[in-house]
């Protein structure tokens, strides 16, 4: 169905125009560009279990793209395929007009993809500042020796990275916990620190795995505001998995709905709301 | 260093003082702000340049003489510059409380007719837009923080840095005009307009002239010997008169440095880093810090705890005497010196009080234990009594004559008298010009000779000549049997317990007193954690039987102490309840400076008050609450009412019965 040639046809790739969405400017003034990531006919199996069955969708530059679905629908698996952590048995991942070969996670990070995790994965004993600094690791060039001596290039480099990190700290309003060890923070703040670390990598694509799980209403509102601000200020493309339907519908430009490893809906929040299959999946109609 | 005598003719406005500072001490720091983790600083010369650039930018945007420029934001150098820039243009700065909801803001914007509004960030811009949806007076919105502002319609909106850039570019065109407007400012020009929070009714705009601010700044600076090398931390609301006097009046008069914290939550860290030499805080800040110290000492090892307790006993005994310069034995001095090395010094350093020469607290009564704690460490903490209409200072305590139960002697240049009904009146150089567009209120507050009624009842202590404040004059009443009812007197005693954040006592015209209690979530929460008491909300913790038992003990202690006072023994609390919600300014129950609004509370919780007097043990109630963003919700709760033991009066009241 899709061309499998390895020579990159870049953005003129016919498959990229599959989607009805063309580059445009949203009502609130954000630029939605061309296709940033294109998932083509992804199938992922664990032994006999089919986690993802022939799913295709794309993510456009500058948009907030949500993946929703009931528990066990395969959302997190999909995110792991996107991040290169899982390798699908069938299908291709195209990123910025190029077919992405099998990659190590750090190589994916260098491509400009950063993520947060459903279960927080921070260094508990380290301060917030140091945790966020680790997000810049892929961009540090000085050698181990230079860093140990903290001299010349290493010093200049750290100052520069620290400045970037401080801007993110300011942006996410966590100045007051800059020096606090992460282990001492409440859950909601840890989530924010994780977002900060992902942002520190200056990603093109930011993937958020249930950024609001376990949060109260106020924390959810704060997090929503930060996600919108990140998208708006830095123009970062965001892919997010979320359970809270209200949040998803308010935040995202387009939504993919998954159920039992299949895609059952794809479109704007309004289209999704009126999609019978989606309604059935959420109301729990029996599957055949 | 800058012991200046009478203000010269050309130093009769804040812009003139700023120019003087830039000329005389241009290289000294005027403002600091922590941003991106580093303290950035601006000298007086740079401050003058920044402020003038902003002022010319204002002129280019069409700011007229006599316009009002509202300002809503946290303490930042740019916001102080904006106020002075407005003055340079002949306009009047009107700082507002940044936590005010859109509805409150709407009233003030309309009342002042502000044409320009300077907002700290997007949140404040949103509020201003909402506040003046119906009534358009604002023609320019200027914001300091660019974040999130890209999508807004900028037809009448500008980034503050852009306004400054425009000002720099338009210098040739407007400089002469600006200098002319600055030269027009006199001692009688309006310096600032501040809206009083008002425990009753609508806020009133207090107009303060350059004379008010500059004379007050001069008098109070020399009273405490403030110098150009002092440092203050500007963290209290900019809408509050105290911040204006300290961070603008006294700062430009003496030339000391104003330090702005990084954000609202970093105040304690920034305090420690700056180590101010001149510091002001309402009692709740000192209470909060002491509570934190005590909580952390509970967690300390046994040796450390012993060391702390031992030396704090010593400090309580001789610390205040040392501070007041009274004779203390050599051995005690040596022991205190050792204590300073081991305990007091490190503790003061942790709190950020190592360098304090002058500290003030005001606004509410401070608990004697709290007050003595800080003084015993060698921190020169004093009390003052003031209000917006007086440009802060009415009375204050001179060094060496400091006590927790008085508010000091009249400030330099201020006269104070007590009326026949016990109300305190004052007049002085700081006495306000008028309430804006409210001649009736001006007349009823300030008489022809310039005497202003404070609304507080008090008396001068025979002997020391210090003023003591009893209560709000209108709150002092009579109980059913005719005995004196002074709710604040009892409330303050209650609030001195760390577990009690707020208390409201009722009893005017009744046969006995009752009270609402608000617990302090920090202190009680810590206690609960220590005792393995699980709770999921404020409401649940407040209703916990053991919390009730603790509070009852506190209430009974207060009763015992009130019984000692023959005049007020009728004010003992017979029944009390712990409120299911914290009293909050957003719900209109308190003013923005956290003073209880009795009228609102007795109306809103009428059902609870009725239940306390008809003998019920508990009552089911529903309360409307307002969230920070202005939305409303309903809180449902069953509130228990408990009896407290009362004590026979020492004499007098028994005879009356």
Description:
The complex is a heterodimer of chains A (288) and B (657). Chain A folds into 2 domains: 21-112 and 204-288, Rossmann fold (3-Layer(aba) Sandwich); 122-202, no CATH class. Chain A contains 10 helices and 12 strands. The longest helix of chain A is centred in the middle third of the chain and has 19 residues, at 153-171. Helix content of chain A is 34%, strand content 23%. The two termini of chain A are 27 Å apart. Chain A is an alpha/beta fold and 288 residues long. Chain B has 657 residues and is an alpha/beta fold. In chain B, strands 4-3-5-6-7 form a 5-stranded parallel β-sheet, with helices on both faces. Chain B has a 5-stranded mixed β-sheet with strand order 12-13-14-15-16. In chain B, strand 27 and strand 28 form a beta hairpin. In chain B, helix 1 (14-25) crosses helix 9 and helix 2 (44-60) crosses helix 6 (160-169). The longest helix of chain B has 22 residues, at 302-323. Mean pLDDT of chain B is 90; it is low at 1-5 and 652-657. The interface between A and B is medium-sized, with 16 and 13 residues.
């Amino acid at each position: 169905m899709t061309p499998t040639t390895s020579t990159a046809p870049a953005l003129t790739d016919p498959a990229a125009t599959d989607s009805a969405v063309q580059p445009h400017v949203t009502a609130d003034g954000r630029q939605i560009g061309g296709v940033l990531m294109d998932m083509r006919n992804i199938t992922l199996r664990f032994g006999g279990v089919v986690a993802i069955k022939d799913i295709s969708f794309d993510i456009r530059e500058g948009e907030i793209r949500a993946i929703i679905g009931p528990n066990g629908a395969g959302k997190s698996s999909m995110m792991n395929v996107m991040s290169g952590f899982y390798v699908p048995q069938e299908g291709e991942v195209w990123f910025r007009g190029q077919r992405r070969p099998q990659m190590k996670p750090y190589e994916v990070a260098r491509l400009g993809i950063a993520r947060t995790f459903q279960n927080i994965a921070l260094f508990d004993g380290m301060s917030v500042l140091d945790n966020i600094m680790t997000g810049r690791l892929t961009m540090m060039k000085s050698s181990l020796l230079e860093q140990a001596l903290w001299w010349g290039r290493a010093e200049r480099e750290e100052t520069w990275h620290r400045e970037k990190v401080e801007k993110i700290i300011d942006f996410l309003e966590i100045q007051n916990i800059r020096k606090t060890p992460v282990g001492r923070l409440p859950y909601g703040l840890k989530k924010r620190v994780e977002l900060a670390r992902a942002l520190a990598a200056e990603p093109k694509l930011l993937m958020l795995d249930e950024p609001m799980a376990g949060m109260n209403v106020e924390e959810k509102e704060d997090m929503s505001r930060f996600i919108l601000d990140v998208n708006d200020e830095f123009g970062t493309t965001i892919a997010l998995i979320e359970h809270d339907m209200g949040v998803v519908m308010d935040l995202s430009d387009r939504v993919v709905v998954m159920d039992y490893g299949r895609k059952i809906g794809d479109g704007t929040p309004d289209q999704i709301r009126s999609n019978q299959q989606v309604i059935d999946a959420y109301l729990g109609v029996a599957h055949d | 260093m800058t012991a200046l005598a009478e203000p010269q003719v050309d130093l009769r406005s804040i812009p003139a003082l700023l120019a003087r500072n830039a000329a005389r001490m241009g290289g000294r720091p005027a403002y600091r702000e922590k941003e991106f983790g580093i303290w950035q600083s601006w000298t007086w010369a740079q401050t003058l340049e920044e402020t003038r650039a902003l002022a010319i930018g204002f002129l280019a945007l069409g700011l007229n003489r006599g316009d009002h420029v509202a300002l809503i934001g946290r303490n930042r150098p740019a916001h102080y510059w904006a106020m002075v820039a407005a003055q340079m243009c002949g306009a009047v700065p009107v700082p507002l409380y940044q936590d005010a909801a859109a509805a409150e803001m709407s009233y003030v914007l309309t009342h002042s007719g502000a044409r320009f509004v300077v907002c700290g960030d997007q949140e404040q811009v949103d509020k201003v837009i909402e506040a003046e949806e119906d009534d358009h007076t604002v023609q320019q919105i200027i914001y300091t923080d660019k974040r999130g502002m890209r999508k807004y319609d900028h037809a009448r909106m500008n980034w503050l840095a852009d306004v400054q850039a425009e000002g720099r570019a338009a210098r040739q065109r407007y400089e002469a005009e600006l200098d002319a407007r600055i030269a027009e400012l006199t001692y009688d020009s309006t310096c600032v307009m501040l809206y009083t929070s008002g425990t009753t009714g609508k806020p009133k705009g207090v107009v303060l002239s350059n004379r008010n601010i500059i004379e007050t700044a001069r008098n109070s600076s020399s009273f405490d010997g403030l110098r150009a090398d002092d440092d203050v931390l500007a963290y209290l609301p900019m809408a509050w008169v105290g911040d204006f006097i300290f961070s603008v009046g006294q700062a430009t008069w003496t030339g000391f440095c104003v330090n702005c914290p990084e954000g609202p939550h970093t105040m304690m860290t920034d305090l420690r880093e700056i180590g101010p030499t001149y510091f002001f805080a309402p009692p709740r800040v000192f209470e909060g810090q002491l509570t934190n110290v005590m909580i952390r000492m509970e967690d300390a090892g046994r040796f450390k705890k012993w060391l702390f307790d031992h030396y704090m006993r010593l400090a309580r005994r001789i610390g205040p005497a040392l501070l007041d310069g009274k004779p203390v034995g050599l051995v005690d001095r040596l022991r205190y010196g050792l204590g300073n090395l081991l305990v007091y010094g490190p503790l003061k350093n942790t709190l950020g009080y190592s360098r304090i020469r002058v500290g003030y607290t005001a606004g509410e009564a401070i608990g004697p234990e709290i007050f003595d704690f800080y003084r015993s460490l060698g921190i020169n903490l004093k009390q003052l009594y003031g209000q917006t209409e007086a440009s802060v200072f009415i009375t204050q305590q001179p060094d060496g004559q400091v006590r927790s139960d008085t508010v000091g002697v009249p400030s330099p240049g201020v006269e104070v008298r007590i009326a026949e009904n016990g109300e305190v009146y004052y007049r002085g150089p700081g006495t306000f010009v008028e309430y804006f567009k409210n001649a009736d209120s001006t007349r009823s507050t300030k008489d022809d000779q310039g005497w202003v009624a404070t609304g507080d009842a008090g008396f001068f202590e025979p002997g020391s000549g210090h003023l003591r404040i009893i209560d709000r004059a209108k709150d002092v009443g009579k109980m059913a049997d005719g005995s004196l009812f002074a709710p604040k007197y009892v409330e303050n005693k209650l609030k001195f317990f760390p577990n009690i954040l707020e208390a409201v006592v009722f009893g005017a015209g009744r046969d006995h007193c009752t009270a609402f209690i608000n617990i302090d979530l920090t202190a009680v929460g810590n206690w609960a954690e220590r005792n393995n008491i699980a709770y999921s909300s404020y409401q649940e913790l407040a209703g916990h039987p053991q919390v009730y038992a603790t509070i009852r003990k506190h209430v009974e202690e207060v009763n015992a102490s009130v019984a000692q006072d023959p005049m007020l023994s009728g004010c003992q609390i017979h029944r009390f309840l712990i409120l299911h919600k914290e009293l909050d300014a957003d719900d209109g129950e308190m003013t923005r400076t956290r003073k209880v609004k009795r009228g609102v509370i007795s109306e809103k919780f009428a059902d609870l008050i009725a239940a306390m007097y008809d003998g019920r043990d508990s009552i089911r109630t529903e309360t409307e609450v307002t969230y920070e963003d202005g939305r409303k919700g309903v809180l449902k709760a069953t509130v228990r009412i408990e009896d407290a033991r009362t004590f026979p009066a020492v004499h007098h009241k028994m005879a009356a019965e």
